[in-house]
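TASK: fixed-backbone design
INPUT:
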């Protein structure tokens, strides 16, 4: 069942979503060559304490950290580590969730470390644009498949591929609610969008093939062919006035 949220609940989700986005902005300021992903995790731990919010990821199915920090061919769920030092030319996906007043915020973005290749920049742009185009499908009268198909079509039209094994999701009091929101599918299929539904839409786009595998740490997902992967995520509510991006500052 897809849980529809009241206007009061949507404002709570907006507070959580904005906090995540604010923190992602602060983290990205600290992304420089030489910094480790554990440095970024430590910063998040400190800031969450100051803000009085709880991490949504730490302890979720045993995930050990507040932040997911995934470098280059890592797709998602990279575990922060003092052995992972950022270097010029890397791309870094930062994904974070908080719980504030019982409601979960979840958002992600991928940032360059120093100067990056034109091809890497194009992957970031296409993935972020795929998210924006998908958000525009969050309208009454549309169906879930319109969101999924939009991501897939745009990514593939640009010569990239979409990850099949990980998906976006409904969000509310729980990090993962129904429905699952794949980054591939058929327009015109799936449930009709209803007022008050809130979706975490999160395209994961690979420069090479779509295939991914999970490393021995049981979390880090990497591309099988070693190609780069990018990830962006926003929370969006369905309203009678169109998409309401709860993670927009
Ligand atoms: N944004 C991802 C998701 O919604 C991150 C989850 S990390 C986990 O699935 F540790 F919480 F699983
Ligand atoms: Co998510």
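OUTPUT:
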């Amino acid at each position: 069942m897809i849980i529809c949220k009241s206007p009061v609940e949507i404002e709570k989700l907006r507070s959580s979503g904005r906090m995540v986005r604010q923190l992602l902005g602060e983290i990205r300021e600290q992304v420089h060559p030489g910094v480790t992903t554990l440095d970024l995790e430590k910063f998040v731990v400190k800031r969450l304490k100051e803000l009085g919010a709880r991490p949504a990821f730490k302890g979720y199915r045993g995930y050990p950290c507040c932040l997911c920090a995934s470098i280059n061919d890592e797709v998602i769920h990279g575990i922060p580590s003092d052995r992972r030092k950022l270097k010029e030319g890397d791309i870094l996906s930062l994904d974070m969730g908080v719980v504030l007043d019982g409601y979960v915020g979840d958002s992600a973005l991928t940032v360059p470390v120093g100067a990056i290749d034109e091809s890497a920049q194009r992957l970031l742009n296409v993935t972020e644009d795929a998210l924006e185009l998908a958000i525009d499908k969050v309208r009454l009268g549309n169906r879930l498949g319109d969101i999924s198909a939009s991501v897939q079509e745009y990514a593939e039209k640009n010569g990239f591929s979409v990850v099949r094994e990980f998906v976006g999701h409904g969000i509310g009091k729980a990090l993962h609610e129904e429905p699952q929101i794949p980054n591939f599918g058929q327009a015109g299929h799936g449930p009709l969008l209803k007022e008050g539904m809130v979706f975490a839409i999160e395209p994961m786009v690979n420069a090479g093939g779509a295939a991914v595998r999970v490393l021995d740490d049981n979390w880090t997902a990497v591309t099988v062919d070693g190609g780069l992967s990018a990830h962006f995520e926003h929370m969006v509510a369905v309203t009678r006035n169109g998409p309401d991006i709860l993670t927009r500052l």
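COMMENT: The first strand starts at residue 54 and ends at 55.
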